[in-house]
Design a protein that fits this description.
Blueprint lengths: L5 E7 L6 H13 L5 E7 L6 H11 L3 E6 L5 H11 L4 E4 L11 H9 L4 E9 L4 H17 L8 E8 H8 L8 H7 L4 E8 L11 H15 L2 H30 L7 H33 L7 E5 L10
Parallel strand pairs: 1-2, 1-4, 2-3, 5-7
Antiparallel strand pairs: 3-8, 4-6, 5-6
Length: 318
């Protein structure tokens, strides 16, 4: 069968040290596939030379599209911007750091040709990452799969191939707090994983330090689960039961003993317990309310300052 038209979406934030090597390697892989292709680079408000390098690449390579966002909107939003402009029958999402091997695209296309509409990379090994990061990554997937109604395959990232039907499904989901790997699981379609060894970053710094990983985890739990709210309801019932026991204890002490002051310890502990429980409850409910508030404003997900389009004829979509 003929090769499909291929789009590769590459979000970039301060990747000036890596972007030229990334483009060279991606181009070598895509040219070897003998198919129509485009590479969509999304500059997510970079502060270094990334944008200038991308503009030079666009001037020299007619297969390149460059989207310059008006500021830093975040990795997940930058990927979304790329998905919205990509024209291919299939769209591959990868990062500019080359930790996910572009050479795997050919194998992903083989699985797509077999009928799979989503092919995601599964990190079998994670070279160059600390034990703490590997442990927290495992904890993240175990936790979210415990809480979420939509299971997310463990040890996956955003490195994946999406059929045009899957891309259109993702584009129809306008939520502000985005976890694309969760959204890809939610849409369904025929999916399969492909194992690979994730390489270490050659240059530059990781764009997902601990605080961003925590925020991503919170987005995953709050966007795909109401379990924390249900947990609060159960905890409320248990607290009410404990309160009844405390009331009975207070009445017994008052009616049948002469040590009315006794019990101040349990009262003190009870007040601390209830106060802490209330603050936690308000925080969890507030997180959900804040997300509802953000959605009701209907602001665009991102704003683009410039778009440098790919030169040449558009693909003949299947």
């Amino acid at each position: 069968m003929d090769h499909p038209a291929i789009s590769v979406v590459v979000p970039c934030f301060d990747e000036g040290e890596m972007i030229a090597a990334c483009h060279q390697r991606l181009t070598g892989v895509l040219q070897g596939l003998d198919a129509w292709y485009e590479i969509v680079y999304v500059d997510d408000g970079s502060r270094d030379s990334t944008l200038a390098i991308l503009q030079a690449i666009h001037a020299s390579d007619p297969n390149v599209t460059v989207v310059e966002l008006s500021r830093n909107f975040g990795h997940q939003t930058a990927v979304t911007a790329g998905l919205e402009i990509a024209k291919g029958d299939v769209v591959v999402i990868t990062d500019a750091d080359l930790q996910d091997p572009p050479e795997l695209i050919a194998k992903m296309l083989e699985l797509w040709a077999q009928g799979f509409e989503v092919v995601y990379g599964v990190r079998e090994t994670r070279e160059g990452e600390t034990g703490f990061k590997r442990w927290t990554a495992k904890l993240f997937y175990r936790l979210i799969n415990r809480l979420s109604d939509v299971p997310i395959p463990p040890d996956t990232g955003d490195f994946r191939l999406l059929d045009r039907k899957a891309v259109e499904a993702i584009k129809s989901m306008p939520e502000r707090h985005r976890l694309l790997r969760g959204m890809c699981s939610w849409i369904g379609f025929r999916q399969c994983g492909i194992k690979y060894a994730r390489a270490a970053r050659v240059a530059g710094k990781t764009k997902y330090p601990l605080n961003k990983m925590i925020n991503l985890a919170l987005d995953g739990v709050a966007s795909f689960s109401t379990v924390p709210l249900r947990f609060l309801a159960v905890l409320g019932f248990l607290t009410a039961a404990l309160s009844v026991i405390g009331i009975l204890y207070a009445l017994i002490v008052r009616l049948f003993t002469h040590t009315w002051v006794a019990g101040w310890t349990i009262s003190f502990i009870g007040m601390l317990f209830l106060g802490g429980l209330q603050m936690i409850s308000i925080g969890i409910v507030g997180e959900y309310v804040g997300r509802v508030y953000a959605e009701t404003k209907h602001r665009p997900l991102y704003l683009a300052r410039t778009v440098l389009e790919r030169r040449g004829d558009p693909p003949r979509l299947r």
